[in-house]
Amino acid sequence: MLVSILVYLCCGAVAGVLAGLLGVGGGIVIVPMLVAVFPSQGIPAEYVQQLALGTSLASIMITSISSSRAHHKRGAVHWDIFRNITPGILLGTFVGGLVATHMPTLFLKVFFICFLGFVSLQMLSSYRPPASREMPGPLGTAGVGGIIGLVSSFVGIGGGTLSVPFMSFCNVPLHHAVGTSAAIGFPIAVAGTLGYIVGGWNTPGLPAGCLGFVNLTAFLGIAVASFMTAPLGARLSHSLPTARLKKGFAVFLIIVALRMLLGLF
């Protein structure tokens, strides 16, 4: 148990820095680590992926608060975008979380691996859609939010890998897109967590300490560490060459994806 708690703390520390530094959902790191640790905790194999996703989203609630506060102090959060996108985010993520709890574990793992590949290629290519338009109106922004929320619930992330490119495409400066994405991670995390709790309620075979598909011990360990390190990531994002760091992180994600793929066999 002690080893697992230390793993949760380390996982949260890394996730917090990444959330503030790169504008990517810390779940990209949290989910694979939980998938690796949970089987040793006696969690049935058919529930490992759902628990990892639900727990990841729960922890992102804390990471997002800490990270977005740090970005807000630097004037990098567009609260008007946050207000317009949140209704779609809440609906898409909650529905996605409910649906994911009834999906086969194999499908969720394959979806996550494919998503890691997508994120890795995006980072390695440094491709960003040209900033050729303005943000859509409230209805259009909410619609995009629904899509971002749905995908985020399937992979247990705060949505930064999708919301940052979207805002950059709409002429939002990169640092502001990262800061606003950190704030958007909160409604994603809240709605997704509720979806996984409701969908996993009274599921037979889950160990003690689980609230639906959220492991409370893992949540607390990750949340405590990520809350402390997210402001550090936010500060570093304004001073370090994040483009180079993203390429290194992309290579790491490819390795993680390959290991998860081999684990399917």
TrEMBL record:
InterPro entries xrefs: TM_pro_TauE-like
Keywords, alphabetical: Cell membrane, Membrane, Transmembrane, Transmembrane helix
GO cellular component: plasma membrane
Transmembrane segments: 7-35, 47-69, 81-100, 106-127, 139-157, 177-198, 210-228, 248-264
Compartments reported by the entry: Cell membrane; Membrane
Topology term for the membrane: Multi-pass membrane protein
PANTHER family linked: MEMBRANE TRANSPORTER PROTEIN HI_0806-RELATED
Family that this chain belongs to: Belongs to the 4-toluene sulfonate uptake permease (TSUP) (TC 2.A.102) family.
Protein name: Probable membrane transporter protein
Higher taxonomy: Bacteria, Pseudomonadati, Thermodesulfobacteriota, Desulfovibrionia, Desulfovibrionales
